[in-house]
Amino acid sequence: MNCIKPVFGVVLMVAMLSGCASGSSGNSKGELPTSSDQTEIQKRASIRLQLASGYYEQRQWNVALNEIKQAIQIDPSYADAYSVRALIYMEMGEHALAEDNFQRALKMSPDNPEFSNNYGWFLCQTGRENQSIAYFDASLANRTYLSPVKALNNAGVCNLKMKQINDALQYFTRAFQLDSSHPLTNAYLSKLYLMRRDDDRARFYLNRMSRADAVSADVLWVAINTAHKLGDRTTEAKLATRLQRQYPNSSEYTSYQREAFDD
User: Fold this and answer.
1) What is the mean pLDDT of residues 231-255?
2) pLDDT band at 30 (very low <50, low <70, confident <90, very high)
3) CATH class held by domain 1-21+38-110
4) How far from chain centre, in Å, is Cα 199?
5) Distances from the Cα of 223 to the Cαs of 59, 95, 157, 172, 186, in angstroms?
6) Which fold, 180-263?
7) Which residues contact 101 (CB under 8 A, 6 or more apart)?
C-alpha cells in the first residue's frame, strides 16, 4: 500500500475550504463555496494543513503536529486541522488526545461525513465497537459523502468484531453493490460466507479478491486465512507469495510464517 500501515477506510481529507465550521452548504448568493471565497487567514491555515498532511503520509508525526499547531494558531476554527491532528494521535497511540481532537472537529462540523467515518473507526479500534456503528451510519446518511464504501466496509468490520455476522454481511453486501472490485469487501465477504458454511460463495469472492492489483497486508492476511480454511492451497500459496514480496517486514507475514491462522 503506502508508507502508512493500512487503516480500514480512515480518510485523510483536507478540505478545499477552511474555516467552514458552521457546516453551511451554501452562501447568501445561493452558491456553493469555492476556494476563491477563502479569506487570507483561511488560505494560510489551509497551506499549513496541506504541509501537515504530507508529513503525516511520511509518518513524520512531530513535524506534522507542528504544522497543524501553526494552522490552528492562524485559524482556531479550522475543523479539518483538529480532525487531521486526531488521526495523527490515533496513529501514535495517543488515544486521549485523539479523542479530544475528534470531538472538537465534530463539534465544529457535526455533519461532516469524513469526520464521522474516521471517529467511528477510532471507536472501533479502541474497544467501543457498539458505539461506532452510529457514526458510520451518519456518514452514509449524508448524500454529499463521496466515499460510502469506506464507511460500509468499516461498519462491516466492526460488526464482525462484535460477532454480528448478519449485520456485517449486510454492510459488506452494500459495499459490493457500489464497488464490486474492492479487495477488502471481497476478502471479508469470502470470510463471512465461509463462516456461514457456504464454500461456493466464499470461493467466488476469494477469487475476485485474488485478481485485485493493489491489496494491503491486512487484507491479504484475511484472504490467506480464508483460502487456508477452504483447503485451497494454490490460492493460499499465491497470496502468501504476494504478502512476502510486498510486505516482508509486516506483522501479517510474521503471522503467516508462524502459521498463526485464525481460529
Assistant:
1) 96
2) low
3) mainly alpha
4) 28
5) 27, 30, 14, 15, 9
6) 1.25.40
7) 82, 83, 85, 86, 89
